[in-house]
């Protein structure tokens, strides 16, 4: 899928993840985890807490994927 635009590739990951595809969930995690972690580390100033919060963010993402609606914004927003 290297020829896809990042947004199109992301949309495909989301569609597959919504159907329960663990590889697509992993792709979304790999794509966003570092950025989420860095943001949380900056906000809370504690690496262990930032790791825990990052895990919580992705757990909520997985739980809420069935209700996700494309609105023209990047998924990361």
Main traits of this protein?
77 residues, mainly alpha, 70% helix, 0% strand, elongated
Largest sheet: none
The total of beta strands comes to: 0
What is the strand content?
under 5%
Give the mean pLDDT. 89
- The best one-word shape is elongated
Q: Measure the end-to-end span.
A: 23 Å
Helix content: over 70%
Secondary-structure element sequence? Answer: HHH
Contiguous uncertain segments of 5+ residues: none
- Radius of gyration, in Å, reads 13 Å
| Helix count, DSSP H or I runs of 4 or more residues | 3
- Structural class designation: mainly alpha
Kindly describe this structure.
- This protein has 77 residues and is an all-alpha fold.
- The protein has a domain at 28-70.
- It contains three helices and no strands.
- The model has no long low-confidence stretch (mean pLDDT 89).
Question: How is the secondary structure organized here?
Answer:
Elements: H1 6-18, H2 22-44, H3 47-64
Helix pairs in contact: 1-2, 2-3
Summarize the structure.
The protein has 3 helices and no strands.
């Amino acid at each position: 899928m290297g020829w896809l635009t990042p947004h199109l590739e992301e949309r495909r990951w989301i569609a597959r993840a919504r159907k329960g595809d663990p590889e697509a969930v992993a792709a979304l995690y790999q794509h966003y985890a570092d950025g989420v972690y860095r943001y949380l580390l900056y906000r809370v100033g504690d690496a262990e807490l930032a790791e825990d919060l990052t895990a919580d963010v992705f757990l909520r993402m997985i739980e809420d994927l069935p209700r996700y609606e494309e609105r023209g914004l990047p998924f990361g927003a």
